[in-house]
Amino acid sequence: MRFHAYESSPGSSSGEDGSGEMEVSPTRLLAIAIQKRRALFGLKERDYRLELLQTSLIQSLCKHLGERRARRRKRGGRRGVRPNKGDDESCGAPITRVEPIVQNCNDDEPSEKRQRDDGEDPFGLDDFFVRVCGRSVTIRG
């Protein structure tokens, strides 16, 4: 997706054929929008309407770029996997084996969960408080 930006000089009218057209990538447009919003933020008399407009443009560009990157990752991306210099095997024929996905089918709770009481440290923060405060925190209730 490309955006077109039109350059116009103060002396030229909009109907002239000589107006310069340049293509701006979404990443470059995002950088320009961020710069403009920072400039608007720094003004003495702030125009909140323009700031909100720039902020919404930045948000929509970030969303667009994020979706584009996610699509690229899903289909394999444009960046290929580089073999490590130490891997002599990977430089030869491509790997064709497929590793099966193994899922844990245990319905039992882990032994840690079974041993722990509901009233004692439900979030596992005892070690954290011992490190930070030097003592364990007890809840009275």
3D architecture notes:
It is a single chain. Helices cover 40% and strands 7% of the residues. The model has no long low-confidence stretch (mean pLDDT 69). The relative contact order is 0.06. The radius of gyration is 29 Å and the shape is flat. The protein has a domain at 3-7 and 20-74. Helix 1 (26-42) packs antiparallel against helix 2. The chain has helices at residues 26-42, 48-74, 111-115, 126-133, and strands at 3-7, 20-24. The chain is mostly helical and 141 residues long. The protein has a two-stranded antiparallel ribbon.
Characteristic key phrases:
flat; mainly alpha; two-stranded antiparallel sheet; 141 residues; 4 helices; 40% helix
Describe how the helices and strands are arranged:
Blueprint: E1 3-7, E2 20-24, H1 26-42, H2 48-74, H3 111-115, H4 126-133
Antiparallel strand pairs: 1-2
* Percent range of helical residues: 40-55%
Spans of at least 5 consecutive residues with low confidence? none
Largest sheet properties: 2 strands, antiparallel
Trace the largest sheet across and list its strands: 1-2
Class computed from helices, strands and strand pairing: mainly alpha
Count of individual helical segments: 4
Could you give the count of β-strands?
2
Series of secondary-structure elements, N-terminal to C-terminal? EEHHHH
The Rg value, from CA coordinates, equals: 29 Å
Q: Name the beta content range.
A: 5-15%
Tell me the span between the first and last alpha carbons.
59 Å
